[in-house]
Design a protein that fits this description.
With 461 residues, the protein is α/β, with parallel strands linked by helices. Helices cover 24% and strands 25% of the residues.
């Protein structure tokens, strides 16, 4: 890598909205709408508004369930490809205001869910599909872009803070058999101008999507990647590339972006409820693997969940998610370091960057070693031997992503350090799954990095 390119990669940092988004970690996309009523994944845009009748819908129940399931936010499908809008808007009659058999046309699920999310301390985001199979202006160019930006303005000025807008990249023909060339830059500018702290995902420039509802984890997951991934200029990169940011991959690049990964995967075979999917939900073990491969691998996990026509979740889905939530609490609800341990370091840049900073996940401080030290270490000392099988590490991503390689070692009964885990990137969070063992002294040796490591959190579980 040229010195110039390397320096530019190091200088790329996340925006404040990207750092705020990263804190959500594990959240859901709640898919609900006309598709649910018709039992389809993609509606055709011709269903009558009176077909929408969620007799027992209670957004408080939704929010409480998501909170109890251990998730931090809801991204709600405000408008899917069929064009049906689940809020009160004056821009189209194909919306809840035309559902006269439900709340006399006064229903507003977006408004109700926004209130429920804040009641239960959840972040609130919106999925809004640019593809529209109902709107007559779709395919006309600027006229449709004006319409779509009007919908975005509705959603981002009426319902409080929105942490994320998800713009689905899929596109096809509309009611007139014509496709639309989306003015994506304008959509993104509209969102950021109305809510500067709102990230744009899917088609957005803030969050990178895994691409297809499935996910194959990378060994090295970099948030700093070549700008050509997003701009399309230069050698092609795509969602499935196994390497997006290593030294080898970026050696000839000089332009970089901070583009962190969101893994978006449905709990069932499909995103919207269909009775035929009732026994397709991922097992708790599969969710655990998915969680480790995403949240535990410098990414966030947006898990798709879907109520039925009446707004209720299927019993098997709820059982799996609640059981998984309990498992997460059992795995990560404690930290041996805070209960019976101490974190020390081989060096510090100054007393401001003490390793004690990395024991508290809620602060914005971090440990930073002396830059002259070639292989700095963090040492985890317990008051007595104890069992553990996981080590969690977080970088201070406000200072960029730096670590390229590290080793986890334990002190054996002969006084020798034994390597039990070899890792690569860390980023926002890395969960190292170890074989269950009992030890008193553990250390993390940072063997390779692009700049002096900055570690904001360490947990031993």
């Amino acid at each position: 890598m040229s010195e110039k390119g390397y320096e530019k990669a190091l200088g790329v940092l996340p925006s404040e909205r990207q750092m705020n988004w990263q804190k959500y970690g594990y959240y859901c996309m709640l898919s609900y709408g006309m598709n649910t009523m018709k039992g389809v994944e993609w509606g055709d845009g011709f269903a009558s508004p009176d077909s929408f009748w969620p007799e027992h819908l209670d957004t408080d129940e939704w929010a409480k369930f998501v909170k109890d399931a251990g998730m931090s936010a809801i991204v709600f499908t405000a408008k899917h490809f069929d064009g049906f809008c689940l809020w009160q808007t004056d821009l189209t009659d194909y919306s809840l205001k035309s559902c006269m058999n439900w709340k006399d046309g006064q229903g507003d699920i977006v408004a109700d869910l926004a209130v429920s999310c804040r009641k239960y301390g959840l972040g609130f985001g919106l999925y809004v599909a640019p593809w529209d199979k109902h709107e007559p202006s779709y395919g006309t160019g600027k006229a449709y872009d004006d319409f779509f930006c009007g919908l975005l303005t509705d959603l981002l000025t009426r319902y409080g803070d929105i942490f994320c807008v998800w713009l689905d990249p899929r596109a096809g023909t509309g009611i007139n058999g014509v496709t639309q060339d989306f003015d994506i830059a304008r959509y993104i500018d509209t969102i950021h101008s109305l809510q500067r702290d709102c990230c744009v995902a899917g088609l957005g420039s803030d969050i990178r999507w895994n691409g297809d509802g499935r996910y194959t984890p990378r060994k090295n997951e970099w948030s700093v990647i070549p700008a050509r991934f997003y701009t399309g200029k230069g050698k092609k990169m795509n969602f499935a590339d196994p390497d997006l940011g290593s030294r080898k991959t970026i050696k000839n690049d000089t332009e970089f972006i901070w583009y962190p990964l969101e893994v978006a995967v449905p709990l069932r075979d499909h995103w919207f409820y269909n009775k035929e999917d009732d026994y397709s939900a991922k097992t708790k073990d599969k969710l655990w693997r998915l969680y480790l491969d995403s949240v535990g691998n410098n990414a966030s996990l947006m898990l798709g969940i879907c109520p039925d026509k009446q707004g209720k979740f299927y019993s098997t889905d709820t059982s799996i998610l609640m059981s998984f939530s309990r498992d997460l609490q059992l795995h990560f609800g404690y930290n041996l370091l805070t209960e019976k341990g101490e974190l020390t370091a081989s060096s510090v840049l100054s007393e401001v960057y003490t390793p004690k900073n990395a024991v508290n996940a809620e602060n914005d401080r971090f440990w930073m070693p002396d830059p002259k030290e070639k292989k700095p270490e963090l040492r985890l000392s317990l008051s007595e031997e104890d069992l553990f099988d996981k080590l969690t590490l977080c970088e201070h991503i406000a200072g960029g992503q730096r670590v390229e390689g590290f080793e986890v070692q334990v002190l054996d009964n002969k006084g020798r350090w034994k390597t039990i885990y070899t890792g690569s990137t860390i980023g926002a969070k890395t969960i190292c799954v170890l074989r269950t063992m009992k030890a008193k002294e553990i250390r993390v040796v940072f063997s390779s990095y692009r700049d002096t490591p900055q570690i904001s959190y360490v947990s031993l579980n």
